[in-house]
Amino acid sequence: MSERGLYAITDSALLADGKLLPYVEAALLGGARWLQYRDKSGDAGKRLAEASQLAELCCAHDCQLLINDDLALADQLGVGLHLGQDDGSLREARQQLGPDALIGGTCHASLQLAERALEDGASYIAFGRFFNSVTKPGAPAATPELLRSARQQFSVPIIAIGGITLDNASTLLDAGTDYLAVINGLFGAPDAETVQHRARQFSQLIHAS
Ligand SMILES: Cc1ncc(COP(=O)(O)OP(=O)(O)O)c(N)n1
Ligand SMILES: Cc1nc(C(=O)O)sc1CCOP(=O)(O)O
Ligand SMILES: [Mg+2]
């Protein structure tokens, strides 16, 4: 598994109207290393069908798939899981998915939440939001200084999220982040070709840092 890279996250509103699969495939062709399926529709049948298709795509492109919010779906597909503060217990998720599963936790701007997430069995810790986010404008703000402190304190992969674009990502890489988690800065594009180009540019930026 790659130790640094682009962490592409889908959004059910942004990738509606048949965009999900072609846009995700473009991100994978551009070098995204992790993909999070983030669907807020509450439609269990649609979620299982889409996540199963993404699992096949990820397998073909050697990309790690994670499911947002939904332990049962992650378990059913045998893939990773991302949980926020209100999405259930990381400890129970670790017990259910086993020692090898990739499990991440939202830590907002708090090293204390990160410590707790790791005690509970998280494989990675995610901080944000770093910039204004179209997708989640209300998320609490975090700073690059926090990333620097986290880098000194923790050896697990550190993820940065929130308003990340090709123009502002370098500050976060300089501060020690391992994965850039991006929704709009990647998938908010007019076509799949642009998504692939952006994914390649993000990947190059990460590996040059
Ligand atoms: C990598 C990563 N970091 C943070 C989040 C946010 O999780 P959460 O706070 O549960 O918000 P939703 O994504 O569920 O709206 C994330 N999904 N991924
Ligand atoms: C889902 C999410 N969580 C955040 C947090 O700070 O925890 S920010 C965010 C939105 C990320 O999307 P975009 O790249 O479009 O800003
Ligand atoms: Mg959540």
Number of domains: 1
Examine the secondary-structure arrangement and name the CATH architecture.
Answer: Alpha-Beta Barrel
Form type = globular
CATH superfamily: Aldolase class I
Largest pleated sheet: 8 strands, parallel, barrel
Strand adjacency order, main sheet = 1-2-3-4-5-6-7-8
Portion in beta strands: 15-25%
Low-confidence stretches: none
Order of H and E elements: EHEHEHEHEHEHEHEHH
Work out the number of β strands.
Answer: 8
Q: Give me the number of helical elements.
A: 9
Structural class: alpha/beta
Q: Report the CATH topology name.
A: TIM Barrel
Cα-atom Rg, whole angstroms?
Answer: 16 Å
Distance between the termini: 18 Å
Describe this structure in words.
This protein is α/β, with parallel strands linked by helices. The chain has one domain: Alpha-Beta Barrel (TIM Barrel). Helix content is 42%, strand content 17%. The chain is built from nine helices and eight strands. The protein has helices at residues 20-29, 44-60, 71-77, 90-97, 111-119, 144-153, 169-174, 184-187, 192-208, and strands at residues 5-9, 34-37, 64-68, 80-83, 103-106, 124-128, 158-161, 179-182. An eight-stranded parallel barrel has the order 1-2-3-4-5-6-7-8, surrounded by seven helices. Helix 1 runs parallel beside helix 2 and helix 1 packs parallel to helix 9 (192-208). Residues 68-69, 84, 87 line the site of magnesium ion.
